Amino acid sequence: MSTWANLCLQDSASPLMEQLIFFHDHALLILVMITVLVGYLMFMLFFNNYINRFLLHGQLIEMIWTILPAIILLFIALPSLRLLYLLDEINEPSVTLKSIGHQWYWSYEYSDFNDVEFDSYMVPTNELENDGFRLLDVDNRIVLPMNSQIRILVTAADVVHSW
């Protein structure tokens, strides 16, 4: 469950989201290791003035700093490609919802049914009930089925301020 000042992602509700969280942690670990290494090297170069004459014109160091980033990118790219393959599910959704963002409201269209369209405006603060959520409650809410495949298409007619 998500709480205030939580540094982790929310608990996953599906195996695919769990794999996405694992990939996020994997990529973040690699980025933190690179950042710490580069920061340490910059710190050491700032306070030391040692010069190694073999590193000034060596092809070995150039090969290392060319091949090492390529290997690191492979460690990030291969799990990412695996996840892209797993996420590419081709299934027939039971409902398709098209959400169109306008400047201060949202329009929704149920594409599978004929002429089911409506606009959703925010409820003004002075008209809220006691248990209402300020800037989150709307006059027409979306109704979607549970435990079924849903396709949501999101687009904008102009700039989206209300999101």
Brief write-up:
This protein is of the alpha+beta class and 163 residues long. The chain has 3 helices and 4 strands, in the order H-H-H-E-E-E-E.
Could you give the topology of this structure?
Layout: H1 15-47, H2 53-56, H3 59-87, E1 95-101, E2 105-110, E3 117-121, E4 150-156
Parallel strand pairs: 1-4
Antiparallel strand pairs: 1-2, 2-3
Helix pairs in contact: 1-3
Cofactor: Cu cation
Organism: Drosophila mediopunctata
Keywords: Copper, Electron transport, Magnesium, Membrane, Metal-binding, Mitochondrion, Mitochondrion inner membrane, Respiratory chain, Translocase, Transmembrane, Transmembrane helix, Transport
What does this entry look like structurally?
This protein has 163 residues and is an alpha+beta fold. It has 2 domains: 15-88, Helix Hairpins, CATH 1.10.287; 95-156, no CATH class. Helices cover 40% and strands 15% of the residues. The protein has 3 helices and 4 strands; from the N terminus they run αααββββ. It has helices spanning 15-47, 53-56, 59-87; strands at residues 95-101, 105-110, 117-121, 150-156. It has a 4-stranded mixed beta sheet, with no helix packed on it. A hairpin with a 3-residue loop joins strand 1 and strand 2. Helix 1 packs antiparallel against helix 3 (59-87). The two termini are 23 Å apart. The model has no long low-confidence stretch (mean pLDDT 86).
Rg to the nearest angstrom? 25 Å
Number of strands: 4
The CATH architecture designation of the largest domain is Orthogonal Bundle
SSE string, helix = H, strand = E?
HHHEEEE
- Percent of sequence in beta strands: 15-25%
Helix content: 40-55%
How are the strands of the largest sheet arranged?
A: 3-2-1-4
What is the average of the pLDDT values? 86
CATH topology category name of the largest domain: Helix Hairpins
